[in-house]
Design brief:
The chain is α+β, with helices and mostly antiparallel strands and 127 residues long. It has a domain of 76 residues: SH3 type barrels (Roll), CATH 2.30.30.100. Helices cover 45% and strands 27% of the residues. The protein has a 3-stranded antiparallel sheet with strand order 2-1-6, with helices on one face. Helix 1 packs antiparallel against helix 3. The protein starts with a helix and ends with a helix. It comes from Aestuariibaculum lutulentum. This is Lipoprotein. Keywords: Signal.
């Protein structure tokens, strides 16, 4: 029985660490123009007319007047990807407030649930 409780603790710890390491990124539902996305300098999700979605660290306009999405390759290394304005269906900006709330609230709810389940299991076993 002691081994089962130790294993349960290890599983709970693994789940908790995984959740804390993850980050949650949410985007505002409102559609914005590419110009507004450039000015915001926020993360952006672009939905194309064919349904494909691309996420960029930000969008910039270069000297040629074209829009480019900066996609993160490695730490401090980005790739410039040309955005065809004719195929853009929707542009959504990063929602910092909701991202923070979800990153904090979700682990709290899961931790609470795991603790409640753990207590229920321990009580049903008779400890």
């Amino acid at each position: 029985m002691k081994k089962m409780i130790t294993s349960l603790k290890a599983i709970i710890l693994t789940i908790l660490l995984t959740m804390f390491i993850q980050s949650c990124t949410t985007y505002k539902a409102a559609n914005v123009s590419l110009n507004k996305a450039v000015k915001s300098e926020l993360k952006v999700k672009v939905t194309k007319t064919d349904g494909k979605k691309e996420k960029f660290a930000r969008i910039e306009i270069f000297n040629d007047g074209q829009y480019y999405g900066l996609k993160k390759i490695r730490a401090n290394e980005y790739s410039n990807i040309l955005i065809d304005t004719n195929t853009v269906k929707k542009v959504q900006l990063y929602d910092k407030t909701n991202s923070i709330i979800q990153s904090v609230a979700l682990p709290v709810v899961v931790i609470g649930s795991v603790i409640a389940i753990r207590e229920s299991v321990i009580n049903s076993i008779g400890f």
